[in-house]
């Protein structure tokens, strides 16, 4: 593991811990950034516990900064920090530092889009381009949202505190969104290798904490089930040479049966509650994919119809079109794609290319693959698309 890997793995944990110790999000983030800058200069080899080193160094940096301040508030903060125990007793329903910080960033005083962007930055350690990809929006827009959120926290004096029990349900939707997007970025990264295992693992860990905190919330259980059922397929996503293996071609014997069993059990618990929501429906789709030797695409399509009725987004429409192709054929799916517009999203032209190839329209398929390749930012996905495009030249069919 190198320093860059440590930064990605430990940044969110360190900011969360320092925020609890300092009671100041902005100061905590600056102290952690200073500590990593110091690590660049001092680390010849990685220390045994890099995260603890960063927290200790960041805390010392914060004390030094407070000592340079002359205000009464700064002196009080310094005294409080110096006399704190290393692991002070936490109070309230949320006992995980990072989960607490997620709820704090999801304060209702912040705009919904700003909450999610800020939390992905602080907890997931995601950069602005990665968050922009998750939102399918411009990088400048994401940067502005993060700046506005931090300013709002500072100007409004939003405290770092554990939400009361009655406040938790209102804070839940953006928290679920954050964990969902964090996992997705780990499962298919914006750039570089296909998978960031640390993000997937952390998103699942936090989802488990949330499920333990709110066991009667079916959407929490649905999200956890969705993440587990998706993670279960990860061992089969890459071939021996590191190439991407589509779902239809994966070796199902490589799937994690323990995670699948747990995910299916959670889906059944959700069904008994009879309060369907988007994450539960997506989890049910994951359950169908992992049930038996082949996917029941008619059932998947029916579930996508339900999901689209609740969440009529272009992404859901695109995924539904894939199911349409399996049930009703590529021509009907291609017609459905014509109604979808997702600027900058490579999977839309990639799906179109695949459907065109199945219809024998090679020239049009090649053009769609060119568009998808130009938009793809992940190395593994781009290589996969390039290989699929090359395979078109082996057929004698023409548009």
Quickly describe the structure:
The chain is mostly helical and 399 residues long. The protein has helices spanning 3-22, 25-42, 50-68, 72-83, 97-105, 112-122, 128-135, 139-156, 168-187, 197-213, 218-231, 257-273, 278-289, 297-310, 314-328, 330-337, 347-358, 362-375, 379-392.
β-strand amount: under 5%
Report the end-to-end length measured between terminal Cα atoms. 49 Å
Low-confidence stretches: 85-93
Fraction of residues in H or I helices: 55-70%
How are the elements arranged and paired?
Elements lengths: L2 H20 L2 H18 L7 H19 L3 H12 L13 H9 L6 H11 L5 H8 L3 H18 L11 H20 L9 H17 L4 H14 L25 H17 L4 H12 L7 H14 L3 H15 L1 H8 L9 H12 L3 H14 L3 H14 L7
Helix pairs in contact: 1-2, 1-3, 1-5, 2-3, 3-4, 6-8, 6-9, 7-8, 9-10, 9-11, 10-11, 11-12, 11-13, 12-13, 13-14, 14-15, 15-16, 16-17, 17-18, 18-19
Organism: Verrucosispora sioxanthis
Keywords: Sigma factor, Transcription, Transcription regulation
GO molecular function: DNA binding; sigma factor activity
What would you say this structure looks like, in words?
Keywords: Sigma factor, Transcription, Transcription regulation. This protein has 399 residues and is mainly α. It has helices at 3-22, 25-42, 50-68, 72-83, 97-105, 112-122, 128-135, 139-156, 168-187, 197-213, 218-231, 257-273, 278-289, 297-310, 314-328, 330-337, 347-358, 362-375, 379-392. Among the domains are: 1-86, Rna Polymerase Sigma Factor, Chain: A (Orthogonal Bundle), CATH 1.10.1740; 97-160 and 167-196, no CATH class; 215-295, no CATH class. It is 68% helix and 0% strand. α1 (3-22) packs across α3, α9 packs antiparallel against α10 and α11 (218-231) runs antiparallel to α12 (257-273). It is globular. 41% of the residues are buried. The model is unreliable at 85-93 (pLDDT under 50).
